[in-house]
Amino acid sequence: MDITIRPAVKEDYLSVKNLMIQSLQHHSELRPDTYRLSEEFFGIEEYVETLEKAHMLVATDKENIIGLVSYSIGEIIAASVYPFRRIMVDELVVDRNCRRTGVATMLMSSVHQAAKDNNADRIQLFVNRMNTSAIELYEKQGFVPEMIRMEYILDKEG
Q1: Where are the beta strands (DSSP E) in the chain?
Q2: What are the two backbone dihedrals, phi and then psi, of residue 67, each rounded to the nearest 5 degrees?
Q3: Domain boundaries, the chain
Q4: Half-sphere exposure (CA, 13 Å, Cβ side) for 123?
Q5: Confidence (pTM)
Q6: Contacts by 38-44, CB closer than 8 A, 24 or more apart
Q7: What's the CA gap between 135 and 127, in Å, rounded?
Q8: CA 54 to CA 47: how far, in whole Å?
Q9: Which of 52, 100, 156, 158, by CA, is between 20 and 30 Å from 138?
Q10: Over the stretch 68-110, which tens digit does the pLDDT of each residue have?
Q11: Helix/strand/coil (H/E/C) assignment for every residue in 5-46
C-alpha cells in the first residue's frame, strides 16, 4: 500500500467527515451511554475552524483519504507544574477497512516529527480505556498512562 501523508485542505471535508463518523460509530459502540450517532456533529464550519486553529494531516492511498490525525501545539504554564511545550493529539482515525496496516503508525510518526520541529517536550492524548486496539498502538509507540480520569454516573431516578 503506497501511503502519502499531507496537510488536510478544505476540499477533503467529505472524506474527513466520513472518517469522523466512523470514529463516532466506534466510540458509540464502546460507550453507548455517552456517545450518540449524529450526521450533524461535524459540519463544514467546524472543519474549517479546525483547519484554522489546529493541525490536521490526512493519509491517502493515491485515491482515497484513509486516515487522519489532528493536533494542537501549545505551552502549559501554571504555578503547580514546570512549564512544558506539548502536542495534544485530538483525533486519530483510520478507515475501518485499512486498520492494522500501518496507517496509524505513519500518522503518529508525522506527529512525532512535528513535535521535534516545534521543540515540544511531549505528546499527549486521551484514549478511552475500552479502546484496547488504540491503547495497544500507543503503548507500542512508547506512550505510558499519565493520569486516570474517573467518573461516577448518578442515578437520576433515585
Answers
A1: 4-7, 55-60, 65-78, 81-94, 122-125
A2: -170, 165
A3: 4-140
A4: 23
A5: 0.89
A6: 42/16, 42/17, 44/13
A7: 7
A8: 10
A9: 52
A10: 999 999 998 888 988 899 999 999 999 999 999 999 999 999 9
A11: EEECCHHHHHHHHHHHHHHHHHHHHHCCCCCCCCCCCCCHHH
Percent of the chain with pLDDT over 70: 99
Of 55, 47, 69, give the one whose Cα is nearest residue 3: 69
What fold does the segment set 4-140 form as a domain? Aminopeptidase (3.40.630)
List phi, psi (to 5°) of 9. -130, 165
CB 121 within 8 A of CB 85: yes
Q: Cell 502536542 identifies what position? A: 87
